[in-house]
Write a structure and sequence with these properties.
CATH superfamily of the domain at 35-133 in chain A: YaeB-like
Shape of chain A: globular
Radius of gyration of chain A: 16 Å
Order of helices and strands of chain A: EEEEEEEEE
Oligomer: homodimer
Strand order of the largest sheet of chain A: 2-3-8-7-4-9
CATH architecture of the domain at 35-133 in chain A: Beta Barrel
Helix content of chain A: under 10%
Largest interface: A-B, 69 and 68 residues
Strand content of chain A: 25-35%
Distance between the termini of chain A: 29 Å
Number of helices of chain A: 0
């Protein structure tokens, strides 16, 4: 069974490739909060952006287009051992789907200006959804990440 | 450009089809919190579940396998008008990707026991990721949903 998707847009990011996101620099909490970028939605999907203003955060679902597929383990940069891939946000996973939450700063025609960008230039966008109260889990605990509290998991985690 | 994914598992849900999720019954905040189900991960991907215990919430990314593709507007059940699809969580969207956050109750072999299930039986699972501190946005505002505060957006929103 194959499930086929097509990009609805692309990300414009100050990070041109993975090496532009130095792990050490972007470890603090909120490290990406000030990283601005744009979500360019292809014109045929532009009408679907109606009413998006007013949501302060958006769920960005994208394709890890530079990743290796099929890996079941990842060695997170914050950690000293291999972890099961589904306990990480590693780009190298069975389905190359990424998810990150960005702050919506503005909208101009088919472009969304956002902050909190932790993906690279030309990342294909698969979907955009509003972040809602059901996505807020203030009581969450974070497994192996808990011992690294204060560090920020980025896509490599 | 086509992006091809294959399911890594399936959801087992008390909701056998969409009609089993009556909109009126499941409108209150936390309405789905007690709905239990299982995420069955296919055996070839089971090793990737290592270390997942300890994360209290998981991000479940799935395929809306019963939805209509390509719609740019949705009429949310909580609302009195059509909204741009990217300002809703409607299953009927250009790429049939769903995202919901579930509470991890336990793990037995290749089965994750979870609560907070708002999807139907046999929903194909595309990915599972840990919910981390970067996914907590306590300052979020919710656009057109704000006037319906207290109501719970479900997949139909």
């Amino acid at each position: 069974m194959e499930i086929i998707f097509k990009p609805i847009g692309v990300v414009h990011s100050p990070f041109k490739n993975e090496q532009d996101i130095p792990q050490k620099k972007f470890r603090g909490p909120g490290a990406f909060d000030k990283i601005k970028g744009e979500l360019e939605i292809f014109s045929e999907f532009k009408a679907g952006l109606k009413d998006i203003e007013g949501f302060s955060y958006l769920i960005l679902i994208f394709n890890f287009h530079k990743s290796e597929r099929g890996k079941l383990f990842a060695h997170p940069p914050l950690d000293n051992q291999q972890r099961g891939v589904f306990a990480t946000r590693s780009p190298n996973r069975p389905n190359a789907i990424g998810m990150t939450i960005v702050k919506l700063l503005g909208k101009k025609d088919n472009i969304l200006q956002v902050a909190g960008i932790d993906v690279i230039e030309n990342t294909p966008i698969l979907d955009i959804k509003p972040y809602t109260n059901r996505d807020q889990k203030p009581d969450a605990t974070f497994g192996w990440l808990d011992k690294n509290r204060g560090l920020t998991p980025i896509f490599g985690v």
